[in-house]
Input
Amino acid sequence: EAQVTQNPRYLITVTGKKLTVTCSQNMNHEYMSWYRQDPGLGLRQIYYSMNVEVTDKGDVPEGYKVSRKEKRNFPLILESPSPNQTSLYFCATAGAASSYNEQFFGPGTRLTVL
Amino acid sequence: AQSVTQPDIHITVSEGASLELRCNYSYGATPYLFWYVQSPGQGLQLLLKYFSGDTLVQGIKGFEAEFKRSQSSFNLRKPSVHWSDAAEYFCAVSSGGSYIPTFGRGTSLIVHP
Output
C-alpha cells in the first residue's frame, strides 16, 4: 500500500529541546516537502526536496532544518523549538509520474512547544 | 506570484443540500488546480485536479469542479451533501513548471443533520 508515514503523531516538548519529526514514503517519489498548518493561515511550506541531497527553503523555513540522505526519508529537525512552532505538521510527496503536481500527504504530527 | 483565495472560512449546509465552495486564483498562465479534503485528524486527500481539457472535472466522493478561466475560478460542487463530508477543504494552484503548489487558507464545511 502506497503511504506516507510520520512519527511521532503527537509530541509535547519544552522550549529549546531539540526534536526530529520523521517522514518516510514507499512510493519512490523524488519530491518531498514539509508544511505547517495553523488556524486561519492554511498550509505553509517549510522546506522541500527535489531529490537526495537536494533541499530548498519554502515560505517559512526559519527555525527548521531538513536533510535528504535517502530517497524515502525526509526528517524535519527543530534544533531549538520555540512556542511559536506549536503547529500541525504535514509531510507530502510527489513523483515524476504526475509531473510532481499531485501530492500525497502524511497523517500529520501535532507538535506543542511549552 | 501565484495565489489562491478561498473567500469562505466556514460554510454550513444541511445534509442532502447542494454545496458549492469557492476558489479564486491568481496566475498568469494556465494553472494546474487542485482540491484537497482534510477530515478531522487526517492528512490531506486529493479530491480532484484540473490540468487541461474539459473544464468540468469529476473527482472522488461525488465531487466535481469547474474551471472558469474568465473568472479565474475553480469552484467545488456536490449536488447532495452527506454528513461524512464535514471536513476542511483546500484549493491549491501550481504551474506546469513549478510543482510547488500554493494552498488557499481552507474552507471548513459543517453539515447539519
